[in-house]
Amino acid sequence: MNTIVIAADRLRQGLEEALGRTGASAESVAAARRAMMHASLLGVDSHGARLVAHYCQVLASGRVNPTPTLSVRRTGPSTAMVDGDNGLGHLVAYRAVEVAVDLARESGIGAVGATRSSHFGAAGAYARVIAEAGLVGFATTNSDSVVALFGGATPFHGTNPLAFAAPVGAGRPWLLDMATSSIPLNRVLLYRSLGSDLPEGVAADAAGQPTREAEAATMLLPLGGPGFGFKGAALAGVATLFAALLTGSTLDPDFIPMVGTADMSTPRGMGHFVLALDPDRFGGRDAFAAGIGAYLAMLRASPAADGSAPVLAPGDREWAVEAERLANGIPLDPDTAAFLGFG
């Protein structure tokens, strides 16, 4: 693929400078940079640095408030709501995580909804922080309709990610971050930028027919493929249940599209949901640590079907990619590299 490799520190600085030029608050810039670097370092390129141009656009156009005043409303012993004041979703979600962690340390469980937010990038960025605090985490959001239902011919759900993470002693967290669509929409946009064909069975054209042409793709297909897409379609509804219905936020079909619309000034009213669980309040932290250690050891020791490739736990590939990219740099698509001034 036609990419330009940039050192992590240089990319981090470039993101900060680009976002800073929009007049966004320092904490907004820091949160967006943190979330994008999480994605770019772990190989989730569709949700990493390539989104910086979009975020700069919505900050400048009025869709996103560059200097929001977030507020937190405690609703119960272990629950709360965060009002994002239409700020960057990264800032809103990280604030929700902070509140959830505090609640879990106090009550054992921290469940936090967020409203009046915007696109927050990779859901795993937030579940990861919960795990790094020694807790079990979950993060989700819903988004605008770009994914067909199983057997459907028009978009209905968003890509609606579900992310889970858990602490693993002195090791890196167990981390699962998955879209409920076949692939994220931003991956289609990335493939367009790179001029590459899509994999089979992940997207459809305006007539609802599967296509590998990134330029012709107008909707995604649900996770599970032609025979089992009902699973992905149902899981997308789980994200809507937590992020929109519980929080009183926007339903997937009611969203202003993230891209491809003339209206870049009206806030989209996104909702998020995060959950933190303290192992001490269940079977105990020692039992959890021993259990997840044994579980992962058995999983990784399981023989591979081809007899050579190792079996991986969720997060293993991502942490390996992070180590490689920290050492050798992060690949950027040409459009993003040009936007950030990297030649």
UniProtKB/TrEMBL annotation:
GO molecular function, one term: oxidoreductase activity
Keywords: Oxidoreductase
InterPro entries assigned to the protein according to its UniProt record, in alphabetical order: Mal/L-sulf/L-lact_DH-like_ah, Mal/L-sulf/L-lact_DH-like_NADP, Mal/L-sulfo/L-lacto_DH-like_sf, Malate/L-lactate_DH-like
Family: Belongs to the LDH2/MDH2 oxidoreductase family.
Name of this protein: Malate/lactate/ureidoglycolate dehydrogenase, LDH2 family
Source organism of the structure: Aureimonas jatrophae
